[in-house]
Amino acid sequence: MSAPVLELKNVAKTYRVKQGLFGKPKPLKAVNDVSLKLERGEVLGLVGESGCGKSTMAKILLGLEAPTEGQVLVDGDAIGGQDRLALAKRIQPIFQDPYSSLNPRKTIADIVSLPLRVHSIGDANSREKAVRETLELVGLPARVLNTYPSQMSGGQRQRVAIARALIMRPEIVICDEPTSALDVSVQSQILNLLNDLREEFGLTYLFISHDLAVVEHLATRVAVMYLGRIVEEANVEELFATPRHPYSRALLNSVLTPDPSQGVPDTQLGAAYPNPIAPPSGCHFHPRCPFAQDHCKISTPRTVPTNSGHVECHLQDPKSPMYRENFSV
Questions:
Q1: The pLDDT of residue 135 is above 70
Q2: What are phi and psi of 224, to 5 degrees?
Q3: Is residue 197 within 8 Å of 164, Cβ to Cβ?
């Protein structure tokens, strides 16, 4: 059996954060003992509130940050021992804001061809041909070659960012909120484009998003992140139909509906997010959990296998005194 195209083994990232002018630096675990596997051609949606560690994980996967602990493997090879340029051929990012991620002083031809020039691939004529073909793939005409990002719409700029990511034909694409800065009418076009490109080139996506409707549309599996931990992972159908972790249910309940009479949904999570420098004891989610009991305050939940993934919750653990058979939140 072939190795997963991307695998994280007990990955952690700890920063030292100083509080106040004379305060001593304290550890902040942005990513805490995360293990994940991505099979070739699938889309893993990574969801969670701001500050939970999603973007830090993306930086680790791109080689921009080194993990404090654990390993990241691409096709079974640890990325820690790989050259930065070699890694860039295999993993490419698509960022949230297409305007800030594109150099406003460069033409579209220069922007899209940059990876080819950095890697010394081809000559000027072959690079221009590759740029034209890649722009055509993402739905942009050749006439945009000599234009600048400021002369394009948000959707067109994001197509340029996608073209730049795909010009090297990578195996894995890290999509960090790639549609959140776009109008709703344009979002569906970009999502459909990403899906078509995945099918055509056999791409593997890690898709980071706050928008659960987008994740449900594009992802094949979903990982729910809270305070640096993956608290639940399942295929998209199972997680959206029967979420097992109370935090997963709260996120699903936060989705706005088209009916204005229903108002803004109440997630019952409260307004305060816990301090990651001083996380709660036991289960980190217990201060916001409607099912929490005293056991949750003192005992850290185990990782329990489920039908299509795993969950970290005492209610789902047969060895826990709080276990409820066939319980789904």
A1: yes
A2: -100, 125
A3: no
